[in-house]
Design goal:
Blueprint lengths: L4 E7 L2 E6 L12 H15 L7 E6 L3 H7 L28
Length: 97
C-alpha cells in the first residue's frame, strides 16, 4: 500500500480519503473479508479523532470507482458517491501560487 494515499481532506465531520489507483496491485482487497479488513484499518485510524464521524473514499477523485471496486452501493453512508468534495481546491482570490 506504499504510495496509495493521494490526499485526505476533512470537512464537517467527514474525512475524504483520495487514493491512487492501485486496484491491479491489490486484487484481493475486494473479497468480502479483504474489503472489510482493508477499510477497517483506515477507519480505526481516522476515527480516533473525535471530529471525524464519517469517512468517504475515492480513487483518483472518484468515489464511485472505489465503491464499485469494493462491491458497495453508493448511498448516504458514502455521500452518494459525490465526487465534488474531492475536486481540487481553488486558490483564494489574490493568493500566490
Amino acid at each position: 500500500t506504499a504510495g496509495l494515499l493521494k490526499s485526505v481532506r476533512v470537512s464537517r465531520g467527514t474525512a475524504y480519503v483520495d487514493l491512487h489507483d492501485q486496484r491491479a496491485d491489490q486484487a484481493g482487497a475486494t473479497s468480502s473479508c479483504g474489503a472489510a479488513e482493508w477499510q477497517s484499518q483506515v477507519l480505526r485510524t481516522l476515527r480516533q479523532f473525535p471530529s471525524i464521524q464519517r469517512v468517504v473514499f475515492a480513487i483518483d477523485g472518484q468515489p464511485r470507482t472505489f465503491y464499485d471496486w469494493m462491491n458497495e452501493a453508493c448511498g448516504p453512508a458514502n455521500g452518494g458517491c459525490d465526487a465534488r468534495p474531492f475536486a481540487p481546491l481553488k486558490p483564494a482570490p489574490g493568493a500566490r501560487p
